[in-house]
């Protein structure tokens, strides 16, 4: 079994950074193919977004969806589209991009193929922060309680890394995963205990704790979007340093990477992404685990491609899961958090078995 620090490290020639692209016609051809793939991924996201607006407890013809924007009227369909489904779809795009990118950054930074904001307890920490703000302090403005989500996410990250790194074996992938699951369960239990104190808050948050895109209006999206955008921008700018750090801290430092600053910025990006996404939709599992692995299987280990591909494909997956959850339980719905768990759990098991990480 390979040492933990070698898992997920992209192949590289000795003394040559992993980000170095192929030269000549081969390099230009690969770049053209990957760029075309990005355009295709964007097209898929647009199609899934249209499906999210048109499909639900009551399906709406595509022509009516178009009329709701080009020739808005007072019909019930137009009202549902503009005031409910469009904000829900935009929220799903933001949350999916945030969680997918956070997972890709965490996997690259820790060289841990099992890193995921939900699996490592980061989302549960953010959820506890929101629960404290709502249940104990009575704060109901997303622009205010999102700061509690940031604090909870940061504390959970530090705690999981400290527990997973203790001992001689260091931060082995399974140790981090086990520490994350343990901390996440403890934080979830704390959330449940706090909500039992206030039945009214519990009734308000019970769907949110499962993970749901429903119930949030456009105002919530406007308040949280700046944090999501900031986290996405910071994360995408870290592609080159993360590539170099994949060769090891010493090699990355020799190639000009400020290791401490890169880790700090990565931590800030993950905190912004997970905190804002959890404040909006609750703790969602496995989006940040499954999508980066699928992307790397297609584009390779170069973070300059992995990160933007993840930003486009993760929200497509999340919206698709949300649409399926609405269709299979008409006139009700299955929360997107449940659908993501159903899709992501087999991926987690497959990754653990394929890389023989389950053997302690």
Give an overview in words.
It is built from 14 helices and no strands. With 360 residues, the chain is mainly alpha-helical. The protein has one domain (85-354): Orthogonal Bundle (ABC transporter involved in vitamin B12 uptake, BtuC), CATH 1.10.3470.10. α5 (142-165) packs across α11 (259-281), α9 (239-245) packs across α13 and α12 packs across α13 (303-327). It starts with 23 loop residues before the first helix and ends in a 6-residue tail after the last helix. Residues 1-20 and 356-360 have low confidence and may be disordered.
List the helices and strands and how they pair.
Layout: H1 24-54, H2 62-70, H3 76-110, H4 122-136, H5 142-165, H6 173-197, H7 199-210, H8 218-237, H9 239-245, H10 249-254, H11 259-281, H12 287-299, H13 303-327, H14 336-354
Helix pairs in contact: 1-3, 1-13, 2-3, 3-8, 3-11, 3-12, 3-13, 4-5, 4-6, 4-11, 5-6, 5-11, 6-7, 8-11, 9-13, 12-13, 13-14
Question: Would you summarize the structure shown here?
Answer:
With 360 residues, this protein is mainly α.
Identify the notable features of this structure and list them briefly.
360 residues; mainly alpha; ABC transporter involved in vitamin B12 uptake, BtuC; 14 helices; disordered N terminus; disordered C terminus
The CATH topology label is: ABC transporter involved in vitamin B12 uptake, BtuC
Share of residues in strands? under 5%
Question: What structural class do helix, strand and pairing data support?
Answer: mainly alpha
> How many DSSP E strands?
0
According to CATH, the homologous superfamily is ABC transporter involved in vitamin B12 uptake, BtuC
Largest beta-sheet characterization: none
Principal-axes shape call: globular
**Helical amount among residues, as a percent range?**
over 70%
Low-confidence stretches: 1-20, 356-360
Determine and state the CATH class: Mainly Alpha
Overall structural domain count: 1
The helix-strand sequence is HHHHHHHHHHHHHH
Please tell me the CATH architecture by its name: Orthogonal Bundle
| Overall pLDDT metric | 83
Count of individual helical segments: 14
Rg value:
21 Å
**What is the terminal separation in angstroms?**
11 Å
């Amino acid at each position: 079994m390979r040492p933990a620090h070698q898992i997920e490290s992209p192949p590289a020639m000795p003394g040559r950074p992993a980000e170095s692209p192929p030269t000549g016609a081969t390099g230009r051809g690969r770049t053209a193919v990957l760029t075309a793939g990005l355009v295709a991924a964007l097209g898929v996201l647009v199609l899934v977004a249209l499906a999210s607006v048109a499909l639900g407890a009551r399906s709406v013809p595509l022509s009516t969806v178009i009329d709701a924007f080009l020739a808005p009227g007072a019909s019930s369909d137009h009202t549902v589209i503009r005031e409910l489904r469009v904000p829900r779809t935009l929220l799903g795009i933001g949350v999916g991009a945030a969680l997918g990118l956070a997972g890709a950054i965490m996997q690259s930074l820790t060289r841990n193929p099992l890193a995921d904001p939900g699996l490592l307890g980061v989302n549960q920490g953010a959820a506890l922060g929101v629960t404290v703000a709502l249940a104990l302090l009575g704060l109901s403005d997303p622009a205010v309680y999102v700061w509690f989500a940031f604090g909870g996410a940061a504390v959970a990250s530090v705690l999981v890394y400290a527990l997973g790194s203790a001992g001689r074996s260091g931060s082995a992938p399974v140790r981090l995963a086990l520490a994350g699951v343990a901390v996440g369960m403890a934080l979830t239990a704390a959330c449940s205990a706090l909500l039992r104190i206030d039945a009214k808050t519990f009734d308000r948050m019970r769907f949110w704790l499962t993970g749901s895109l429903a119930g949030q209006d456009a105002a919530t999206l406007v308040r949280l979007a700046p944090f999501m955008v900031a986290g996405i921008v910071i994360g995408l700018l870290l592609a080159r340093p993360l590539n170099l750090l994949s060769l090891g801290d010493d090699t990355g430092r020799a190639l000009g990477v400020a290791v401490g600053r890169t880790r700090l910025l990565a931590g800030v990006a993950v905190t912004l992404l997970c905190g804002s996404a959890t404040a909006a939709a609750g703790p969602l599992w496995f989006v940040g685990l499954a999508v980066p692995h699928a992307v790397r299987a297609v584009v390779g280990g170069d973070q300059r491609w992995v990160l933007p591909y993840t930003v486009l494909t993760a929200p497509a997956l999340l919206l698709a899961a949300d649409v399926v959850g609405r269709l299979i339980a008409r006139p009700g719905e299955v929360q997107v958090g449940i659908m993501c768990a159903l899709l992501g759990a087999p991926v987690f098991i497959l990754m653990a078995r394929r890389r023989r990480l389950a053997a302690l």
